[in-house]
């Protein structure tokens, strides 16, 4: 059994700690908050983030150096905006090199970096080839209740992906491997924008037809950007692509869907974010993807519309009208070419 530090004690860090503890590992859950550390160790609950009891063998730490000492694996699960800060602290205290797995979903605005790229930039001991990502349709609330869940772990180094698979795999948490780090990270990050759109659509009172259209055409534009950057188009048909789009666009557990729903009902972005209390990654990633698509000259009309609702006060109904009245197209035109690529 391994000693594993999970860095980030929000909903997803806590749920993944439960999976690892169920698998018999010695789990240290690091938080930047001393009060939360005490609460978790006294009550075996992480009340703000999950309702369920946490196995007693998960020990919370607020001292990162103690949390990572002698570990065989580190799982990084903080919001994307905190990745660099946490990695800088980690880098300053690392004296050994355990396997490094991250489970965050986002793209950095301005640099367009994915999480693995940010980690590799901040950590002296790790290169891009060393990083593993864990992604897929997996709401923390259901994982914590041991409900059947499937995810993918991806790394350019297949031994690391297999190692991560072994650490997490159990009877209710099925883990696949992939070598398409780029595609898996992009799928997980970009689906959050479409989930905001699905929430907006529901908030406006539109029905299942509109949501199915958003998911399908959202997948097309995610695949368009992903393949233009070199991802395998088939990755977007897998768990971290279409799988995560379905779960995030259709579930009340999704913070992105919930935030979108409030926007669709007429709330302003700042009012929505105040109410959420948890990270809504799609907002920051929408800014990144909008600019990234512009730079790469990739057509992403849904992302474009959501960006304008979020940051330029555009009315959601107006965006829907514009999307519906775009120039007539053949449905599979560009998709056909993407899948014909090697
Ligand atoms: N929740 C889910 O079902 C899933 C989430 N993810 C991804 O996992 C990542 C984390 O999300 P999730 O756990 O849900 O988010 P939450 O909002 O539930 O929790 C975020 C956690 O990160 C902590 N945090 C914030 N900033 C820092 C910082 N600078 N240093 C250290 N800790 C910090 C927060 O601390 P504090 O309490 O002090 O704010 C909190 O413990 C996101 O990228 C998300 O997209 C992926 C799959 C599923
Ligand atoms: O990524 C997720 C499920 O796979 C969680 O999505 P939300 O951040 O929208 O809750």
From TrEMBL:
One MF annotation (Gene Ontology) recorded for this entry: glycerol-3-phosphate dehydrogenase (NADP+) activity
Binding sites annotated in the UniProt record for NADPH: 11-12, 32, 49, 105, 140, 255, 279, 281
Active site: 191
Pathway stated in the Swiss-Prot or TrEMBL entry: Membrane lipid metabolism; glycerophospholipid metabolism
Catalytic activity, as annotated: sn-glycerol 3-phosphate + NAD(+) = dihydroxyacetone phosphate + NADH + H(+); sn-glycerol 3-phosphate + NADP(+) = dihydroxyacetone phosphate + NADPH + H(+)
Keywords, in A-Z order: Cytoplasm, Lipid biosynthesis, Lipid metabolism, NAD, NADP, Nucleotide-binding, Oxidoreductase, Phospholipid biosynthesis, Phospholipid metabolism
Name of this chain's protein: Glycerol-3-phosphate dehydrogenase [NAD(P)+]
Organism: Cerasibacillus terrae
């Amino acid at each position: 059994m391994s000693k594993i530090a999970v860095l980030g004690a929000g909903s997803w860090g806590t749920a993944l700690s439960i999976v690892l503890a169920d698998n018999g590992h010695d789990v240290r859950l690091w938080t930047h908050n001393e009060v939360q550390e005490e609460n978790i160790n006294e009550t075996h609950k992480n009340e703000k983030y999950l309702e369920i009891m946490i196995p007693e063998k998960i020990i919370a730490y607020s001292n990162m150096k103690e949390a990572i000492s002698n570990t065989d694996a580190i799982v990084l699960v903080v919001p994307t905006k905190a990745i660099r800060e946490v990695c800088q602290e980690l880098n300053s205290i690392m004296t050994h090199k355990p396997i490094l797995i991250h489970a965050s979903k986002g793209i950095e605005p301005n640099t367009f970096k994915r999480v693995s790229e940010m980690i590799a930039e901040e950590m002296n001991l790790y290169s891009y080839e060393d990083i593993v990502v864990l992604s897929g349709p997996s709401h923390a609330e259901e994982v914590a209740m041991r409900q059947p869940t499937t995810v993918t772990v991806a790394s350019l180094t297949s031994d690391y992906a297999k190692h991560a698979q072994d650490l997490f795999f159990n009877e209710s948490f099925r883990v696949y491997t992939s070598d398409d780090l780029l595609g898996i990270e992009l799928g997980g990050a970009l689906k959050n924008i479409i989930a905001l759109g699905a929430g907006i659509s529901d908030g406006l009172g539109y029905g299942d037809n509109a949501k199915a259209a958003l998911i399908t055409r959202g997948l097309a534009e995610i695949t368009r950007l992903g393949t233009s950057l070199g991802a395998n188009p088939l990755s977007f048909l897998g768990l971290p692509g279409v799988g995560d789009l379905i779960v995030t666009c259709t579930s009340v557990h999704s913070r992105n869907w919930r935030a979108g729903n409030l926007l669709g009902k007429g709330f302003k972005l700042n009012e929505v974010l105040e109410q959420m209390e948890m990270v809504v990654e799609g907002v920051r990633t929408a800014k990144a993807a909008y600019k990234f698509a512009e730079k790469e000259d990739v057509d992403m009309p849904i992302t474009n519309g959501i960006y304008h609702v979020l940051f330029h006060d555009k009315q959601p109904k107006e965006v829907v009208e514009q999307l519906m009245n775009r120039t007539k197209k053949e449905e599979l035109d560009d998709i056909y070419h993407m899948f014909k690529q090697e």
